C-alpha cells in the first residue's frame, strides 16, 4: 500500500489516504515518485473546470525511479530515473500523422481506466491525467514514462513534465519568439515563470511580466523579466507605454481568464502574436469585433502542452539546465508533503507563489 492524494468527487476536498496499487501488467511501469509539482490543471480537475472520471488520484507533473516493469517494456528498467508524460501520443491518429503529437486524439484514453483501489473500502480509483503523480508510487502505461535526462536531479526533473515543457513550448513552438522581440507574459505562476525563462533564452529584448500580485515581482525578475506590471484594467495601456506605444511583438497568457486573454490581445502590436496557454472554463467568453480583427492583423492561437513533443524536447531542456540557462529551482517557491497540496491549491486561488513541489 502507498499513500496518495485522492479526489473523492468534483468539488470535494482531497483526502490523503492509503491505496492499493496492482503490479504492472503488460506494457506498464511502476514508479516510485521523487517529486510532483502542483499544477493549476490539478486544481481545475478538482473543481470541475476540466473533467475526468472520479474518484481519482490527481497529479500529472512528476519524476521518479522505476520499481518494476511489465511484459514488453524495454525502454526503461528497474532503477532508471524517469519523467512522467501525462499526454502520451498514440502515433496513429490524424494529429499524430501530421506530427502534432500534442493534439493526439487518444492521449487521455487512460483516464477512464481503474488505476488502483482505496485501502479502506476497496473502491475503484482512476488515474487523474493518466499518471496519478500525487502518490508515493504509481503504475502507468509505458508511454507515460520518458528516461530522465542525465545531470538533472529527479526532484528538479519533475518540473520538466508540465510547467517547463508548456512554458518553453509556448515561446519556441507556438509564439516562435525571435531574438530582439518584445514579450509580455500574463501570470507569474509555475508556467509563467518557465515562460519568462524561455523568452530570455530565446533572446527577447524586453520581457514584461504581468500578475495581480505585487509580491511576485522579484520572482519574475529573477527568471528574466525586465519589467513588471501589476494587473489592472489599464494593463494593456501600460504595456504599450513600455514599448513605444506599439505593443509587444508577443503576448503569452498563462491564466485562462477572459479578461486576461482580452488584455493580452490588446497589449500585442499590430501584426503581433497572442498565445493562450491558460486553461479556462466554458463560462469564460472572449469577444472581438470584426473590424479590430481586420485592422490589427494579430494572430491569436491556443497552445496545448506547449505544442511540444516531450521525447524530442526533454533533451533540449536538459541541455539548457546543464548549461545554466534554465534554472528549475527558480520556479519553486514551496516544498511540501502530500498533505500540503490542499493549502497549495488555496495559494493558487489567492494568486500566491510560483510552483509548489511535493517531495517524497
TL;DR of this structure?
The protein is α/β, with parallel strands linked by helices. Helix content is 26%, strand content 26%. It has 11 helices and 18 strands.
Walkthrough of the structure:
The protein has 360 residues and is of the alpha/beta class. The protein is built from 11 helices and 18 strands. It has helices spanning 40-47, 94-97, 154-157, 163-174, 190-202, 217-223, 235-241, 258-266, 290-296, 310-322, 341-349; strands at 2-7, 15-20, 28-38, 56-57, 61-69, 81-84, 116-118, 124-125, 137-141, 145-147, 182-186, 206-211, 227-230, 248-253, 268-276, 299-302, 332-336, 355-359. The strands form 3 sheets. Strands 3, 5, 6, 9, 10, 17 and 18 form a 7-stranded mixed sheet that branches. Strands 13-12-11-14-15-16 form a 6-stranded parallel sheet, sandwiched between helices.
Q: Tell the overall outline.
A: globular
Number of strands: 18
Distance between the termini: 15 Å
Estimate the mean pLDDT confidence: 95
Element string (H = helix, E = strand): EEEHEEEHEEEEHHEHEHEHEHEHEHEHE
Poorly predicted runs are none
Which structural class is indicated by helix and strand composition?
alpha/beta
Report the major sheet.
7 strands, mixed
* DSSP helical segment count: 11
Q: Taking Cα atoms only, what radius of gyration do you get, to the nearest Å?
A: 20 Å
Helix content: 25-40%
Percent strand equals 25-35%
Amino acid at each position: 500500500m502507498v499513500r496518495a492524494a485522492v479526489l473523492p468527487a468534483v468539488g470535494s476536498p482531497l483526502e490523503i489516504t492509503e491505496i492499493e496499487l496492482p503490479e504492472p501488467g503488460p506494457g506498464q511501469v511502476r514508479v516510485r515518485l521523487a517529486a510532483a509539482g502542483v499544477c493549476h490543471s490539478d486544481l481545475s480537475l478538482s473543481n470541475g473546470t476540466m473533467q475526468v472520471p472520479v474518484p481519482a488520484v490527481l497529479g500529472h507533473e512528476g519524476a521518479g525511479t522505476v520499481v518494476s516493469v511489465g511484459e514488453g517494456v524495454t525502454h526503461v528498467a528497474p532503477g532508471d530515473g524517469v519523467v512522467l508524460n501525462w499526454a502520451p501520443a498514440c502515433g496513429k491518429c490524424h494529429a499524430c500523422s501530421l506530427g502534432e503529437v500534442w493534439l493526439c486524439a487518444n492521449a487521455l484514453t487512460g483516464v477512464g481506466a481503474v488505476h488502483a483501489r482505496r485501502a479502506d473500502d476497496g473502491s475503484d480509483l482512476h488515474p487523474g491525467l493518466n499518471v496519478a503523480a500525487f502518490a508515493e508510487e504509481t503504475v502507468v502505461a509505458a508511454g507515460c514514462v520518458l528516461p530522465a535526462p542525465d545531470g538533472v536531479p529527479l526532484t528538479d526533473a519533475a518540473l520538466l513534465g508540465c510547467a517547463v515543457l508548456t512554458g518553453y513550448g509556448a515561446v519556441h513552438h507556438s509564439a516562435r519568439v525571435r531574438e530582439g522581440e518584445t514579450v509580455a507574459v500574463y501570470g507569474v505562476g509555475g508556467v509563467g515563470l518557465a515562460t519568462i525563462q524561455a523568452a530570455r533564452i530565446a533572446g527577447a529584448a524586453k520581457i514584461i511580466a504581468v500578475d495581480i500580485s505585487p509580491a511576485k515581482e522579484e520572482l519574475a525578475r529573477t527568471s528574466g523579466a525586465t519589467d513588471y506590471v501589476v494587473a489592472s484594467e489599464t494593463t494593456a495601456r501600460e504595456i504599450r507605454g513600455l514599448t513605444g506605444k506599439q505593443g509587444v511583438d508577443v503576448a503569452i497568457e498563462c491564466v485562462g481568464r477572459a479578461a486576461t486573454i482580452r488584455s493580452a490581445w490588446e497589449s500585442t502590436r499590430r501584426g503581433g502574436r497572442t498565445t493562450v496557454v491558460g486553461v479556462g472554463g466554458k463560462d469564460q467568453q472572449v469577444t472581438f469585433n470584426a473590424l479590430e480583427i481586420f485592422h490589427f492583423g494579430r494572430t491569436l492561437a491556443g497552445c496545448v502542452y506547449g505544442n511540444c513533443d516531450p521525447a524530442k524536447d526533454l533533451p533540449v531542456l536538459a541541455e539548457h539546465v546543464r548549461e545554466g540557462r534554465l534554472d528549475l529551482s527558480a520556479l519553486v517557491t514551496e516544498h511540501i508533503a502530500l498533505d500540503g497540496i490542499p493549502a497549495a491549491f488555496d495559494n493558487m486561488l489567492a494568486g500566491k507563489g510560483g510552483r509548489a513541489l511535493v517531495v517524497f
